[in-house]
Amino acid sequence: MSNPNSTSNSARRMPSIVRALRSVDGIRLTSMFTAYPGHAEEMVAGITVRDYDVIISLGGDGTINEIVNGLMDSNPFSALPATELPAIATIPTGSANVLAGALGIPRDPVDAAWYIASLLRSRTRSAISVGHAAERCFLVNAGIGIDAEVISTMEQLRHNGTRAKAVRYLPAIFTAWNELRKSPPQITATIDGKEFGRDLAMAVVSNSNPWTFLGDLPIVTNPTVSLRRGLGFYGFTSLKGVTGLVAAANLAGFFTRLRSPFHIEARERRVDNAQHIQLTATAPLRLQLDGEYINQRDSLNIRVKQGAINFVARADDYTEDQFTKKVATRPVDERLLVVVTKKAMDRTRRLFSTSQKTEANPA
């Protein structure tokens, strides 16, 4: 299933992607193209493993979100068990491709196609958690505050014909941050039945780790959150002053040595592996799910179902310890070095897979 309008999808790459997938012995492909928002959800509604073993998504996080909502009828708690639903494979062609990164899948579509092909050959599957909020499933995160403001701004830019590249998020982030500093929301968080924070200036509930607006640069709110467990909650009591700017920069790895001098931890509110999160605000705030603007709400009830759906991915690609050591606690230069190294490894793996296929099937 392909979203032809996703950011990095192109006719030039499609032959290489198809070649990689067709290298899997016995595979039979049926291609479908989305034509409008919500189309992927409509196309997969009611599909089970009796129809297809795997649904391959060529798109971004929004396309995957639609596929999951279509398969589960927007409710993981009443959906069929993961064993009765097709597994999902993601070949990322969106602007951020957060879920692919969290699953250890290359963000380059051609590299990802060869990687997915190798997992299809070995029938590798990994069951992951699915969040539920605002009558919708989500896989990456749910947020009210700065992230939802940025997403809303970017959707307006896309509506006006601007492609959602990472560099274009920067002005939106700066504008949203300034507005929230001037007039911060007052959010109250109740987690697993206990009040955890009051008058918070921002609140992000994450199912994946990491997430990002900025291409491959990881933003880390909850270093030990796993796609295979409960939800992570991150809140901040105040965005004002230099401390607020340092705290925001810390999430992307900037100014990490200033955490102690500016007492950043005193303003942070963080919980990992939560099962039920309730957010309320004194006024309606914008809400985003998986990078898609939903609407405005003054309350939000969020739950998670573990092991809800299978993805074509390795369960151990991004273990908590490995990620925390390599990325989450590191400054921005070390994070980028990890990203570049992984890209080089992905490219080498793709070239190796291609040469192996050529040797096995000489012209």
TrEMBL record:
Transmembrane segments: none
Gene Ontology molecular-function annotations: ATP-dependent diacylglycerol kinase activity
Domain DAGKc per the UniProt entry, residue ranges: 1-113
Entry keyword set: Kinase, Transferase
Domain of life: Bacteria
Pfam families xref list: DAGK_cat
Cofactor(s) of this protein: Mg(2+)
GO CC annotations, alphabetized: plasma membrane
The family this protein is said to belong to: Belongs to the diacylglycerol/lipid kinase family.
Protein name: Diacylglycerol kinase
Organism: Corynebacterium amycolatum
